[in-house]
Amino acid sequence: MSETPTDSGTTSGDTTSAGTASAGTTSGDTTSGGTASAGTATTGASGASAGTPAQTPKASAPRFNHVAMSVPAAALDERGRAEVLAFYGEVFGWQELPTMTEDRHRLVMMAHRYDQFVFLIADDQPMQAPRLDHFGQSVTSVDELTALRDRCVAYRARDDRVDVIDVQVDEFPGLRLHAFYVGYLLPMMIETQYWEWT
Asked: How many helices (H) and strands (E) does the chain have?
């Protein structure tokens, strides 16, 4: 089954990444000999102008874009979905992609962009993992890290199923790594890190 979420009227992909040419711009390296006149394309259908070797587009590095986990069907009924969405929405700002939701079968949560998501699928033999099995995310300041930890602790005061491992700081050459873990209703915990370069 495909794990690519879709939503009406949206595109899957990073709409902020470099490489989208505006109207009237030319493709190819304009610094490598010759300057194209305004409105004149530097490449033809074959991908190269006359007398110029074809340029191979530079590929971007692959990146992680989702985590998929199997859970019991009951965890994805109306009540189960509401509990998952309430916690991860309040703490991390994740949002349901409702066009992907199937009662007792599937829930997809967008993590701030359409092509970055957590995919939950029902299974008769759902995933089971040791407590510290996890996936990770990072923030850009220690204040952000502390704020997220504080939201988890506040939620735990209302729901004792929230499992928090408080912030620890590990020292490495040139790096001070701040991190905490939280688990709630999913097979794996989430580690949040802040990388402080020293």
From this structure: 2, 8
Q: What does the pLDDT average to over 24-32? A: 39
Nearest of 88, 91, 147, 144 to residue 118 by alpha carbon: 88
Planar angle of CA 132, 120, 179, nearest 5 degrees: 30
Q: Which two tokens stand for residue 104?
A: 């007792």
Q: How many CA atoms lie within 13 A of 31 on its CB side?
A: 0
Of the chain, the end-to-end C-alpha distance in Å amounts to: 45
Q: Which residues pair with 68 in a beta bridge?
A: 119
Contacts of 142 (CB under 8 A, 6+ apart): 178, 194, 196
Side by side, which strands form the sheet with 116-122?
A: 66-71, 116-122, 106-113, 95-96
- Is-contact 103 76, C-beta < 8 A? yes
**Contact between residue 58 and residue 71 where contact means Cβ atoms under 8 Å apart:** no
Backbone angles phi, psi at 65, to 5 degrees: -135, -10
**pLDDT tens digits along 119-154:** 999 999 999 999 999 999 999 999 999 999 999 999
